[in-house]
Amino acid sequence: NLEYVTPLFRDRLSLNMDYSSIGTTDLLGLDEIDFEYLGGGLNYYFFKPGKGLYGGLYYGNLNIDGMLSDVESEDDSGKKGDAFANYSHSSFGAKIGAKWGGLIYFRPEIGYSFDPLPKSFNAEVVFDDGSREAQEIDFELEDSPVDLIFSGLTFNLGFGFSF
């Protein structure tokens, strides 16, 4: 995260940029998944310049690459292959957060994306014989806390150095 507190509005308006890249295995039922996020926006600090409670607006882009193994063919029963999905999602949202600390800070945020993530992705399934098939992979996460991210809820925890 990079943030620059501008002199505007008595040093309470800041420009910020976030970048994250996470590669993992066995998340959301996928065997491999890589996330990359790039976003930017404005924060307005309510009480102190560059510290404490703030509200903000942001625009971000999330790229997801995933692989799920042993996916059964929809056309040929018993035939299994690996499904590959590549998805890009842009969204605009609002957030509220707090920046606590001095030289070392902690920054929790919660917000809402006006264009939430879909619960299904298009994937290409590649079989051992070289044939391919397009399928839709659906995430069945009813009654799960993870399901909240598909309704637009966003959250972010940050920490770093401030100077």
Kindly describe this structure:
The chain is elongated, with a radius of gyration of 20 Å. Strand 5 (80-101) and strand 6 form a beta hairpin. The chain starts with a strand and ends with a strand. The chain has one helix at 8-11; strands spanning 2-5, 13-27, 30-45, 52-72, 80-101, 104-113, 120-127, 132-138, 153-161. It contains one helix and nine strands, in the order E-H-E-E-E-E-E-E-E-E. Strands 1, 2, 3, 4, 5, 6, 7, 8 and 9 form a nine-stranded antiparallel sheet that branches. The chain is mostly beta strands and 163 residues long.
Fraction in beta strands: over 45%
As a whole number of angstroms, the C-alpha radius of gyration is: 20 Å
Amount of helix: under 10%
Number of helices: 1
Could you tell me how far the N terminus lies from the C terminus, measured between alpha carbons in angstroms? 13 Å
pLDDT < 50 stretches? none
> Which whole number gives the mean pLDDT?
87
Write the layout of secondary structure elements.
Blueprint: E1 2-5, H1 8-11, E2 13-27, E3 30-45, E4 52-72, E5 80-101, E6 104-113, E7 120-127, E8 132-138, E9 153-161
Antiparallel strand pairs: 1-2, 2-3, 3-4, 4-5, 5-6, 5-7, 6-9, 7-8
Keywords:
single chain; 163 residues; mainly beta; 9-stranded antiparallel sheet; 1 helix; elongated
Short recap of the structure:
By secondary structure, the protein is mainly β. 2% of the residues lie in helices and 69% in strands.
